Amino acid sequence: MAFLFRNSDKKSQHTGQEEKRHFLEHDSNMIIPSVAGKLQQLIRLPPLTDIHEWLATNSLAFFTQINIQVGVVSQLCTQSTCAQMSAGSQVFELDIEKKKKVKMHAKQYIDTVMMNIQKQLGDEQTFPTKFGYEFPFDFVQIVRKLFRQYFIILAHIYFHHYHQFKRLQLHDGLNTLFLHFVYFVTEFSLIDPKELSLLDDLIEKLKTQEQALAKQPLNDRESEFNMVASKSS
């Protein structure tokens, strides 16, 4: 399968409530306090590590984490609630084989993309794990495509399901994952900054909060986090 993404001029079919940017509401952009100041250390290429190995390892790690987030809304992202794959008014279309357009609602789109990525990650010709196997010459381009797909899925979750994460009190984990993701794709130039600009406001808020939390002693961070969590429960 060949996956090509296109932006459409169609307006989102989501309700006004879903189009509201819940992720920009006051105090909704909380990250896990204990990781503040550590995320940028996690994404750096370790000494003596091959860049291809590092990209491969993180491709799998982010797939696992994003798959968990997809699972949170698997029963909430349906054909009736998400009739198209979008992030606000921006719509993404999926082409399969010979650039033939296939109309899909968001859940079908996400499931198709994630299944394809899982197959790629398990393909020894693309993501070799055995001794003697080499990475393909276009490996970086393959990884860029994967991470762009990850971003589109995360963007859909933020625009149309963030309020559900907030209600379940799982938004801090989602935000921490996303900030980690942003640092990683920026460090290794995996996504065009113009595409990331779709969530620029959120990225700026999360970075600002992380910097503020990193300046606090860990005990103070956790106390503040527990206080906010207790008020929201």
**What is the H-and-E element order?**
EHHHEEEHHHHHH
Secondary structure tally: strands: 4
Unreliable stretches covering 5 or more consecutive residues = 1-5, 7-18, 227-233
Helical content stands at 40-55%
Write up this protein.
The chain has 233 residues and is of the alpha+beta class. It has a single domain, classed as MOB kinase activator (Butyryl-CoA Dehydrogenase, subunit A, domain 3, Up-down Bundle). Helix content is 55%, strand content 8%. The protein is built from nine helices and four strands, in the order E-H-H-H-E-E-E-H-H-H-H-H-H. It has helices spanning 16-19, 39-43, 51-72, 106-121, 139-167, 171-187, 193-196, 200-214, 218-232; strands spanning 3-8, 86-87, 90-96, 100-102. Strands 1, 2, 3 and 4 form a four-stranded antiparallel sheet that branches. Strand 2 (86-87) and strand 3 form a beta hairpin. Helix 3 (51-72) runs antiparallel to helix 4 (106-121). 30% of the residues are buried. The model is unreliable at 1-5, 7-18 and 227-233 (pLDDT under 50). Keywords: Metal-binding, Zinc. Zn(2+) binds at residues 77, 82, 156, 161. InterPro entries: MOB_kinase_act_fam, MOB_kinase_act_sf.
Task: Label this structure with key terms.
233 residues, Butyryl-CoA Dehydrogenase, subunit A, domain 3, 9 helices, disordered C terminus, zinc, metal-binding, MOB_kinase_act_sf, MOB_kinase_act_fam
Summarize the structure.
This protein has 233 residues and is α+β, with helices and mostly antiparallel strands.
Topology:
Layout: E1 3-8, H1 16-19, H2 39-43, H3 51-72, E2 86-87, E3 90-96, E4 100-102, H4 106-121, H5 139-167, H6 171-187, H7 193-196, H8 200-214, H9 218-232
Antiparallel strand pairs: 1-3, 2-3, 3-4
Helix pairs in contact: 3-4, 3-5, 4-5, 5-6
